[in-house]
Amino acid sequence: MASSSSLDHTRTLASQVGGHAGVQTTEDGSLIIKPALPLEHKFYLELTTSDAFAALRPYVPRFFGTLKLEGEVDETKSNTGGGIVIKETDTKEHKDKCCFLLSLVLENLSHPFLKPNILDAKLGTVLYDEEASPDKVERMLKTARETTSLETGVRLTGFQVYDNATSQPINTPKSYGKSIKPSDLPEGIRRFFPISSAESSSGLPANLLLPILQYLREDIAEIRGALADLHFRMVGGSLLIIYEADFKKAEEGIQWVKDVEEGKIDPESDEDEDDDKDGEDAAKKQKPRSPYVVKLIDFAHTRIKPGEGPDEGVLKGIDTVLSLLDGRIKEVEALLGD
């Protein structure tokens, strides 16, 4: 995998709803450049080379290599969530002291979507790394107790949902996910998966939302199965869920999934054709693609633990997400059945 020391022609990732500052996207929007701790780089290397991760690979962003960032780590803004903020080093004195940090080059999961609705759901009941200071451990234990993390294994870190009237995303910040109780999680899922109606300016029609919910549930169940066979501990990792808010694109995407399931389309060859097109405008003119995607992200504090079994706190979080989706699916089915 090639590496480079240049970050020319990048910009801040506009669709980021969780995590920490510092994530960039390439000029065409197809890739993200994320400052990373060595542990996360190690995880991606093991993911691409170890047979133990074969079942998980389809549900992790594609890894294209690394870049080197020149600067100093801003310790005041770096934490166990996996984010690293780099302070610029303009003076010679700073440059003499600067460090070179690896930055991961990953696929931008939101790039193929015209209007991406995006949810970052943090997984796990343990929010501190095993090397965290006692003070950090105490603070993270308190955070887990006072949010939905400890009881349910999941917290809605942040999400965006497009307004159909303005065609602009409406962001729900981290403060919402930190303020709600476990009993409020179903309402949080309704807010992320609204149904278009005379009363709501957001959401897809119920007949389009239902299959997307069902597809997402199937994939998340497969992610759970893959994680149940891994001996690992993941702190600060998330499920990233994206689905198309544009009615026409969503409808075309649902038909595309059906065609793939019926063997009418080879998804890999279809993807290769789209990869040959350059530029942001071309991306919006691509053939229909999946109207949703769900991936595991943020592995800055993920450790392989042979012989210790799966991370039960993470599995608990995924089980909660599956239960929440089941509830929303029943609500949409009931609406369509009226």
From TrEMBL:
Gene3D superfamilies: Inositol polyphosphate kinase
Catalytic activity, EC: 2.7.-.-
GO molecular function: inositol-1,4,5,6-tetrakisphosphate 3-kinase activity; inositol-1,4,5-trisphosphate 3-kinase activity
One cellular component (GO) term of this entry: nucleus
Compositional bias ranges of the Acidic residues kind: 268-279
Top EC class, one word: transferase
Keywords, sorted A to Z: Kinase, Transferase
Annotated region (Disordered), positions in chain: 259-289
InterPro entries for this protein: IPK (IPR005522), IPK_sf (IPR038286)
GO biological process: inositol phosphate biosynthetic process; phosphatidylinositol phosphate biosynthetic process
Matching PANTHER family: INOSITOL POLYPHOSPHATE KINASE, KINASE
Protein family according to the UniProt entry: Belongs to the inositol phosphokinase (IPK) family.
The name this protein goes by in its record: Kinase
Organism encoding this protein: Dendrothele bispora (strain CBS 962.96)
